[in-house]
Amino acid sequence: DRSLKIAPSILAADFAAFGAECEAVEAQGADWVHVDVMDGHFVPNITFGPAMCAALRPHIRGTMDVHLMIAPVDPYIDAFARAGADVITAHVEAGPHVHRTLQAIRASGARPGVALNPGTPAEAVATLLDDVDMVCVMTVNPGFGGQSFLPAQTDKIRRLRQMIGDRPVHIQADGGIDPDTAASVVAAGADVLVAGSAVFRGGSVADADVYGRNIRAI
Ligand code: DX5
Ligand code: ZN
Question: Which residues make up each annotated binding site for a divalent metal cation?
Fold first, then answer.
């Protein structure tokens, strides 16, 4: 199913109203909700953990897409799966045993994704394409929302789509995706687009129609 999916990242939402923000973006057309977990070690920022995911679960009807920017990953997989994560994405750079991590995510009942930082070549996941449901290509350096899109990552997306072939594997573009950059990553083969600032900017739970307009513009 390569129909385009928009996954708003709640990193750009009101941190004091996450439940209502998830309901608002879903009501306004979001396909997935992207939850950016950061540990202040793998990336220079700290956000939230499994308890937040569990609290958000009742407010997300669709796919809860959990992006783990943490190291190590393995000790926390079951907690995120129990919290209700549908997709759990780990970074290939997070440790020496990414294949085992992906097996553990699959065993937890969640769908495994693997993420690549901008400095990591597509070939780093060549041996993992039968073990994941999704490859997340970071189109910014991880840690913060609102950064500028890195155009060179489009070539990586194209290369990955070629490597994936006819496997049922999503390619997610994550970072700096907005109406000006979405077309290039979709043309290259991305079918899940994460967008934080491009979705939440200018809107609020009280003015959620803005979210719908922003989503449709991507
Ligand atoms: C960055 C996160 C991204 C980010 C996207 O580390 O993984 O998901 O929140 O935010 P925007 O769309 O504002 O770049
Ligand atoms: Zn993310």
Answer: 34, 36, 67, 174
Is 174 marked active-site?
Answer: yes
pLDDT in tens, 95-142: 999 999 999 999 999 999 999 999 999 999 999 999 999 999 999 999
pTM: predicted TM-score of the whole model, two decimal places: 0.98
Question: What proportion of the chain, given as a percentage, has pLDDT over 70?
Answer: 99
pLDDT beyond 60 at 1: no
This model of the complex carries an ipTM of 0.99
CA–CA distance, 82 with 50 (Å, rounded to integer): 8
Handedness of CA 159, 163, 168, 170 (dihedral sign): negative
Residue 74 gets which letter from DSSP? G
Q: At what angle do helices 209-217 and 18-27 cross, to 10 degrees?
A: 60
Give the separation between CA 27 and CA 153, rounded to whole angstroms. Answer: 31
State the catalytic residue, choosing from 39, 65, 86, 174. 174
CB 119 within 8 A of CB 92: no
Q: Which residues surround ligand 2, an ion (CB under 5 A)?
A: 36, 67, 174
Distance CA 109, CA 185 (A): 29
Strand order from edge to edge, sheet including 32-38: 5-8, 192-195, 170-174, 134-138, 111-116, 87-91, 63-69, 32-38
CB under 8 Å to 28, separation ≥6 — which residues? 208, 209, 211, 212, 215
